What we know:
The protein is of the alpha/beta class. The protein folds into 2 domains: 13-152 and 337-354, Glycogen Phosphorylase B (Rossmann fold); 171-332, Glycogen Phosphorylase B (Rossmann fold, 3-Layer(aba) Sandwich). Helix content is 41%, strand content 12%. The strands form 2 sheets. The protein has a 6-stranded parallel β-sheet with strand order 7-6-5-8-9-10, with helices on both faces. Helix 7 (184-193) runs parallel beside helix 8 (211-223) and helix 7 (184-193) packs across helix 12 (304-316). The longest helix has 17 residues, at 104-120. The two termini are 22 Å apart.
Amino acid sequence: MPGGVDDPAAPSGGNIYDRRMCRDLPQVGWQVHEHLVAGEWPQPGATARAELARILRESADGTVVLLDGLVACGVPDVIVPEAERLRLAVLVHLPLGDETGLAPDTAAALDAAERRALRAVAAVVATSDWAADRLVEHHGLEAGRVHVAAPGADIAPLAAGTASGTDSAPRLLCVASVTPRKGQLELVESLGAVAGLPWSCTFVGGLAHDPGYVARLRKLIGRYGLDERVHLVGPRTGAGLNASYAAADLLVLASRAETYGMAVTEALARGVPVLATAVGGVPEAVGHAPGGGVPGVLVPPADPAALTAALRHWLSEPGERHRSKVAARGRRTALAGWETTSRSLAKALEQLRLEPRRNI
């Protein structure tokens, strides 16, 4: 099963998902052969294109090949010629044109390339029901060829946060690469508007993807006088990331686009409630606690006033903090694990393996 996996040195939800599936698929009956293809995806140079073409060319006829969408969707000239000979599936973490900050002509070109690639392959895997529906509608795909394998969650010890009844300021946590799509500028605007209330906020996420955006964010933090309360700590994995969640009282996300939002379920797996924009698959990730309670607050995207109002209400109302915490702990017990993800993905791949070859 050749595939493209993101740089492990730059942690992301897609990277975590890919590596987890490479590890877990053998446990549900699949033999996995991982191929890393270095390059500036989704717009690689000639060397990266040639390497991907070589991997596909050297795969035996009828091989089931699962490719990360970041690798496959931008190079239909490489993918389409192999689509009839191989059994190709593409795992789409984020439609290429949905990345914010792209020039309009670049976004349009990537969107067209993605459409051509996804229409050629035999199967597409999305990470939420919302994402699957959007791919079908936006690219005109056959619904029966689009499958869903939502990210799982590992239940972890309950977060301690700040002890109830103490004078400690609530600890907010944002886990997302620092890029325009994740909306940290909007979040800091809202934090500045509630600076009169007690809180601190830690931003965990890569700082290298968009240095200009990071510089603007640091400047805004300084303008609001939040340097002692807002901390940009860079990417964290393993024990460091676990410690960040363990210390949190609320996960805050102001994303402009998300196909799912793995940080949401990672927080809920520790009983940490969520305040997030209701974009893409985020409402699916937030879900409901048994009995119907919502483990946090969802606000409309691109609505700074709504984000600020929700943040102010959560910070100033102990009853709201308690309600969301109880609901988050209830949702924690109902989260699907990664085994569900691997079985969903394996089912899609098995269907692909048994299907007759497609003519394109």
